[in-house]
Design brief:
heterotrimer, A mainly alpha (292), B mainly alpha (308), C alpha/beta (271), A: 292 residues, 11 helices, 75% helix, 0% strand, B: 308 residues, mainly alpha, flat
């Protein structure tokens, strides 16, 4: 007796193929929906915002009157913020990654640091805001300065930069290390002259992506009390300031319809900054694609 | 060259220096690496201390068991956390309903059906979606999704749980899709080939072999996405309103934990007031929720890791 | 631990056969463990100056481990333990006061896979002198040229010194790596299967180069290729399961081995 009747199998095959096609369609739909969501979002913001986009918008300060509202203070403020966040987070992130990849012994403390970093990555940004408010703004009396906000943001993106740097360092082939040690180089010489140069593209790519996150973050800034209406440019890191997402948040939450166009224009500026940064990351990635 | 290289090396200065550097560098790097640990400690201590101060003014039982959140009341301030939790859960639930089917389906398509070309186009798009600042999503929810919903369901108010829920869902789709896709792609090709060679359809391979094999990674991605949704701030601050309520209504204004912190922060509740301390108590609750989710995700992916 | 009988025989042979040249490396009762894996057992070897010493044996016999012990690169593997002594020019390299960097400055190494740094050819060769404090550009130029000439690759790369070292062929990369090792004028050059990743023509070039280099350097080369050992070496040590089965003049090992296992290996019965 045969257990498998070929005829029945064939008949069922048609149904099975039909199910396969059906689900393939469903799965494809999910991808299409995702792409559509992005397209609609970009289109909406573009069409809402382009009317308000002009040179004046970039060079004006914020205003009660939608027509005169500009983004100058926020744009400059975000650049100031980056001037603090970029070096701080890079030094802390790359330093931690070098320690973990090159020096850390396999022990409880190291395990703890690793687990801690991955958990830190999952802490909501608004909680970092509470940390910044308590430690930097109040305890260290930095006030709502660029420095306080910059430190807060640096800690927020620190886990991302550490993990990206760790991966970049790990991907440097062990043979290069061996070659350097074989020449009588010390550990630090090997790290500084061989490993870091080889890992720099990966580190920078990760760091730029992390910095773009910091540029777009709003919640921590609100919590540490960054103001919105600012009619001057900061002249130092201890000055108070405002940033792009803060300004956009303010415009978005105003009831007047006209401010929506202003907010959308602000978003276009923010997205342009992000696009610019991401293109640099892609450029770096392409220029230094794997050479060993 | 008058002398041999080895002689020059022997004469070169800085040997002492070198030894000192080799000793001091690991110490400096260790101190740098401990900043991340200090950050965690700082977060925990900050939340704990300020929350304790809060509980000296508001009994902890009121906070944990109260179902009315009325901090701005002139008569009697009430700090029962449940309305804020309810608001957070409403938004999170809708986000999950939107993001889980779409995210996992997209992951299956990318991992099991898509050609290399499609993958090369879609993956960067997911990255772009993941990189859009949440303030942009919030604006999108308020000015596009809500009016769109209202045109179909007039009973939906300008501030509601549904619109931000959907948009938070869109925001976490990339997370679920790419983490799940990673999990599915790491199932070895030989397993796939084995099933295909027995006459399975692509769908049967995906549904009966790949998804079960990658289930720990898929679940972990969903749990992490839930954590993200719980902690999401700007979308709900802009589009969900500021009405803490403990009920089952999704169509009207609500308030989430994060939105409350924002509301207080941008207002002028002075330092030292009970309201000021309440944001730490709420922040602590939020922190516990997300921490539990993160630990759960870590546990799931470790405990149920498949051996190939 | 019992003393291995064959080790004793080869030891006595050694005294008679190795000749009077000065010894560079003298290994006495070296044992090495990776965790609980006993990888090298009671090694005794006397390696002589200005000769090519080949180390042969099947995969996993410990030959690579041994050569990496000679410049203590083996210690980069965690959980390595050693006992016994290796005298380099009369001084025990395991001595506490003996800095590994100092040792490795005297002993150069060439690896299995060509591993130039992702830098220019010039920077690759100048790497060693630079880290050891030689900064003078004119001197560096001289060292680079001399080393590249020494590695018989100067004519092929002299017009492209500023190009990335990965832009040349695998065989050329390996000779650049040799030049890089020569740049600090080491006393000994350790070669760990330097031709295993190369095509036959590149292999031949490296073999010729080794013959050339032995005038100025002592060379220890690990190879899985017995013909190669026969072609280029003066002495050959046969390793098996972490022990030295036989160590003698290469001619003797290949024509008249005293141990049955050596004969089996050389005639291709295993390995």
């Amino acid at each position: 007796m045969k257990y498998i009747e070929q005829e029945i199998v064939l008949k069922k095959m048609n149904v099975r193929n039909l199910i396969n096609s059906l689900f393939k369609g469903i799965f494809l739909m999910a991808v299409v929906i995702t792409l559509l969501a992005l397209l609609i979002l970009l289109y909406r913001i573009g069409s809402q915002g382009y009317t308000h986009l002009s040179m004046d918008f970039l060079t004006n300060f914020a205003s009660r009157f939608p027509a005169q509202a500009g983004i100058k203070a926020a744009l400059v403020g975000s650049l100031w913020l980056m001037a603090i966040v970029a070096p701080t987070s890079l030094i802390l992130g790359v330093g931690s990654a070098i320690y973990l990849e090159e020096y850390a012994k396999k022990n409880k403390i190291t395990d703890f640091i690793r687990v801690n970093i991955s958990n830190l990555a999952g802490v909501p940004s608004i909680v970092f805001g509470l940390l910044g408010l308590t430690i930097f703004v109040r305890a260290l009396s930095l006030g709502t300065s660029i420095l306080a906000a910059g430190f807060t943001m640096s800690l927020l993106i620190l886990p991302v930069i550490i993990v990206a740097s760790q991966e970049a360092i790990r991907s440097v082939p062990g043979e290069l290390r061996d070659a350097s040690y074989g020449m009588g180089a010390t550990k630090w010489q090997t790290i500084l002259k061989i490993i870091l140069p080889a890992a720099i593209p990966g580190i920078l790519t990760g760091a730029i992506l992390a910095l773009s996150r910091a540029i777009g973050e709003t919640a921590p800034l609100i919590v540490i009390g960054v103001p919105i209406i600012i009619q001057f440019l900061p002249s130092g890191v201890m000055d108070t300031f405002t940033a792009l997402p803060m300004q956009i948040y303010d415009w978005s939450s105003r009831p007047q319809q006209e401010f929506q166009a202003v907010a959308a224009a602000g978003i276009i500026v923010l997205m342009a900054v992000l696009l610019f940064m991401n293109s640099i990351a892609v450029l770096i990635r392409n220029k230094y694609h794997k050479r060993y | 060259m008058g002398q041999s290289v080895q002689e020059m090396i022997a004469q070169s200065k800085g040997k002492k220096n070198k030894q000192f550097i080799e000793k001091i560098i690991p110490v400096i790097l260790f101190l740098i690496a401990s900043v991340s640990v200090l950050t965690t400690i700082g977060i925990v201590l900050t939340l704990v201390f300020e929350t304790v101060t809060f509980f000296t003014r508001v009994p902890i039982t009121d906070f944990l068991f109260g179902t009315t959140w009325m901090p701005f009341s002139n008569k009697e301030q009430l700090f029962g956390i449940w309305p804020l939790i309810a608001g957070t859960l409403k938004v999170t639930m809708i986000a999950i309903v939107v993001a889980v089917p779409i995210g996992i389906s997209a992951a299956i398509y990318l991992s099991e059906y898509a050609s290399e070309t499609v993958r090369r186009i879609v993956k960067p798009v997911l990255e772009v979606l993941a990189g859009i600042p949440t303030i942009v999503y919030g604006f999108f929810a308020l000015t596009f999704v809500t009016p769109l919903l209202q045109s179909f369901f007039p009973e939906i108010k300008i501030f509601n749980a549904i619109s931000p829920g959907i948009v938070v869902g869109i925001m976490i789709i990339p997370m679920i899709a790419s983490l799940s896709e990673d999990a599915m792609s790491s199932v070895p090709k030989s397993i796939r080939d084995g099933a295909l060679a027995m006459g399975s359809t692509r769908f049967e391979v995906a549904w009966k072999i790949i998804v079960p094999a990658a289930i720990s990674g898929i679940i972990a991605s969903v749990v992490l996405a839930i954590s993200r949704a719980i902690g999401e701030t700007m979308i709900v601050s802009l589009a969900a309103g500021s009405t803490p309520r403990f009920d089952g209504d999704f169509t009207g204004s609500i308030q989430t934990m994060t939105a409350y912190i924002v509301q207080v922060s941008k207002g002028d509740a002075g330092y030292g007031t009970t309201i000021y301390y309440s944001i730490y108590a709420v922040g602590f609750t939020l922190f516990l929720f997300t921490m539990a989710m993160n630990l759960l995700a870590g546990y799931v992916s470790k405990r149920f890791r498949e051996e190939y | 631990m019992t003393m291995n009988s064959s080790a004793i025989t080869s030891d006595t042979v050694m005294e008679k056969e190795l000749g009077n040249s000065k010894s560079v490396y003298k290994t006495n009762q070296l044992n090495l463990w990776y965790g609980s894996n006993h990888a090298l057992k009671n090694i005794d070897l006397d390696i002589r100056e200005n000769e090519v010493t080949a180390i042969i044996g099947p995969s996993g016999c410990g030959k690579s481990t041994y050569i990496k012990t000679l410049n203590r690169m083996v210690e980069l593997v965690p959980s390595v333990k050693t006992s016994g002594e290796i005298l380099y020019r009369g001084r025990n390299i395991f001595e506490k006061s003996y800095g590994v960097e100092e040792l490795r400055t005297r002993v150069g190494m060439v690896f299995q896979k060509p591993n130039p740094f992702p830098k220019s050819i010039y920077d690759n060769v100048a790497y060693g002198p630079r880290i050891h404090g030689i900064k003078n550009k004119k001197i560096l130029d001289e060292i680079v040229e001399k080393s590249l000439r020494g590695a018989a690759i100067w004519d092929e790369v002299k017009d492209r010194l500023n190009e990335n070292a990965y832009s040349v062929s695998g065989g050329q990369q390996q000779r650049i790596c040799i030049a890089r090792a020569l740049a600090i004028e080491p006393d000994v050059i350790l070669m760990d299967e330097p031709t295993s990743a190369l095509d036959p023509i590149s292999t031949l070039k490296i073999e010729e180069l080794v013959q050339e280099l032995k005038k100025d350097y002592s060379i220890i080369i690990v190879t899985h290729n017995m013909q190669q050992a026969a072609r280029i070496s003066d002495k050959t040590a046969f390793f098996l399961n972490g022990e030295v089965v036989e160590y003698d003049k290469t001619d003797t090992i290949f024509s008249n081995p005293s141990d049955k296992r050596t004969e089996d290996y050389i005639s291709g019965r295993f390995g």
